[in-house]
Specification:
Layout lengths: L1 E3 L9 E5 L5 E5 L6 E6 L23 H14 L5 E5 L6 E3 L4 E5 L2 E4 L5 E6 L3 E6 L4 E6 L1 H5 L2 H8 L6 E4 L12 H11 L4 E2 L2 E2 L1 H11 L3 E4 L14 H4 L6 E7 L3
Length: 253
């Protein structure tokens, strides 16, 4: 089932889907050619509060059996294809993968394989799906990764041309106040427009980084801080909250 999603921020059109197994996700509308991009919400799973309901992390204190069931639901939603993931370390490492399973420490994955799902887990950090003619990538970009330009690095690792990036649900400048020092560092790296006082726009910085790499950017404009009913937000719900999954699968054109 699909419905259009209304967001309070300026952003590209997004659609709200409920998969056959119950997992709820948002995606760009229309979907990109050659890939499925899926930003899973917190809705449709079996975890109990404060991890309700589609939490994918056992590290936050959730019941492992509930997490396993949630992951199984997501596996069904992505079509039952193999999945690849990494140990996210808030850095700028990019892992190239060709098969499902654990791919080591990194914060971005790149593949040329059709039918392989690339995943990152987020709760305010920025998920960025990259879709190119030959390859796809999925990026986890917190403030450290954003400052080091991980999205642009992942894009440059991809072969082929005509790359497009999809910035998914994340915390935005309205809800993300940082230290003066960090705001100044981002302003120096990406320009004054990415900060307003001490409020930092990670999507704005990532857009600058990607455009420098020659990538077209589509930002869905969804804020996890504004919508804790729909997404997990570490900043708004700490110390305990779940993690959302963000996924991209290369498909035949």
């Amino acid at each position: 089932m699909r419905a259009h999603l209304t967001q309070p921020h300026d952003g590209a059109p997004a659609a709200h889907h409920t998969a056959a197994g119950g997992a709820v996700y948002v995606s760009p509308h229309p979907e990109p050619e050659g890939a499925r991009v899926m930003f899973f919400t917190r809705l449709g799973g079996v975890s109990q509060p404060p991890f309700d309901a589609l939490n994918v992390s056992v590290k936050v204190g959730d019941d492992p059996d509930a997490v396993a069931e949630n992951i199984s639901m997501i596996h069904e939603a992505v079509g039952g294809v193999p999945s690849a993931w990494v140990k996210q370390v808030a850095g700028d490492g990019v892992a190239r993968v060709s098969e499902g399973g654990f791919a080591g420490e990194a914060d971005a994955l790149v593949t040329s394989e059709e039918g392989l799902c690339l995943n990152v887990a987020v709760a305010d950090c920025v998920p960025v799906a990259l879709v190119g003619e030959d390859e796809v990538a999925m990026v986890h970009s917190g403030w450290r990764g954003s400052l080091s330009g991980i999205s642009g690095k992942a894009a440059r690792r991809m072969s082929g041309d005509a790359k497009r990036a999809y910035i998914g649900p994340c915390i935005r400048g309205c809800c993300y106040e940082v230290s003066r020092e960090l705001a100044d560092a981002f302003a120096r790296a990406f320009g004054e427009d990415v900060v307003s006082g001490r409020h930092l726009s990670l999507p704005g910085a990532i857009r600058v980084d990607l455009e420098r790499a020659g990538v077209e950017v589509v930002d869905l404009g969804l804020c996890t801080g504004c919508r804790p009913d729909l997404f997990f937000s570490h900043r708004k719900e700490k110390p305990l909250t779940g993690r959302n999954l963000a996924s991209v699968v290369k498909v035949a054109r």
